[in-house]
Structures are given as structure tokens and as C-alpha cells.
Amino acid sequence: MMTWRESIENYAAWNEQEEKDKEITLSCLETYSNVLTRENELVHITSSAFVVNKTRDKALMVHHNIYNSWSWTGGHADGEEDLLFVAMKEVKEETGITYVKPVSEDIISLDILPVFGHQKRGKYVAPHLHINVAYLLEADEHEPLVVKPDENSNVQWIPLAELDSYSDEPHMKEVYKKIIERTV
After folding, report:
1. For the chain, how big is the Rg over CA atoms in Å?
2. DSSP state of 102
3. Where are the alpha helices (DSSP H) in the chain?
4. Which of 26, 29, 47, 165 is paired with 18 by a 20 to 30 Å CA distance?
């Protein structure tokens, strides 16, 4: 089994954006020893899940409180080296589903995502970057969904054909589009 670093090093970039993001990511891994934790306030690793239903025509999305937009699930590695585990844990925590499985254990998308300054749990979080490692997961669209009020205000399955109209973040629309192109 590959380490988290090896999985990033061996990731085959899908397009020019990913080639550049991978190059910068590898440079950050050489420069900083603490990118797996939020101790690095400039850039750190996060892991996300693009969750599809069995027929691959819907994605499970949450309405994110901080960004006030529909988005995938995900979170900080916080020292955890198994980034697929992080993605799966975050899906369960943020949506209430109990069973989710990887379509593949390989990374589906590698992106450097900007995070603007914001308040979280009463503290200011300065602008920074997330090196985001994403996985394609599958879940049962008939399983009950639960909102996690401290992070999101809604959870629902959205048809892939309509996903673009739900997201209010232009940079994320491109990420979702890229993943859909790779999976459909």
C-alpha cells in the first residue's frame, strides 16, 4: 500500500491545472514538514469525497455554512495519513450516511483550493490554501440523510446534470466538472 505522499507523487494529472497543482504540491511537501496539520497556517492537506449513487447520475452534496454554497464533503487531515479514510469519515459525519465505499482507492482529483479568511467557532481563520486530495465514493441514495448544523444547513442528492446550477463557487464548478468528465 502506498503512503499518502506516494499516492500524490504517483498521481497522473488529468489536465494542465492538475499538473501545475501537483508540481506546487510536491514543492510544498519538500518545503514544509507539517502540511498534514493545521499547524501550517499557510497550506495544509485536506481530503474530500465526490459521492455518487449506484447509477452514477447523482452526487451527494451539502450546503456548506461558511461558503454558503452547495459543495462536496471533506475535511482536514489533522495528522491522519490515510486520506481515503479522512474522506470517508467526513462523508459520514457531514451527511449522516452509515455506509460508503470507494469506487477506487486512487485519487480522483488533486487541487489547490483557496480559503478566504473567516470566523470558525468564534475564532478568526486567516486566508490559506488547501492541498485537496479527493476520492470517488459510492453510497446508497435511499439511506437517510442528516444535517450537521455546525457545518451545513442541508444535505441532498443532486442530479449531476444540475450540479453546476447549485454551486456558487466558480473554482469548485470546474473541479466538479472535471470529476464528472472522468467518471461518466
Report:
1. 15
2. E
3. 4-9, 16-31, 83-95, 163-166, 170-183
4. 165
Where would I find the beta strands (DSSP E) of 33-151? 43-52, 58-64, 69-71, 73-76, 100-102, 109-115, 118-120, 123-125, 128-139
Cell output for 121: 467557532
Q: Is the pTM of this model over 0.85?
A: yes
Using CA atoms, how far residue 6 sits from 11, 43, 171, in Å, is 8, 19, 26
Averaged over 32-61, what is the pLDDT?
97
Per-residue pLDDT, 58: 97
* Residue 120 vs residue 141, higher pLDDT: 141
Domain for residue 162, yes or no? no
Q: Tell me, what CATH number does 120's domain have?
A: 3.90.79.10
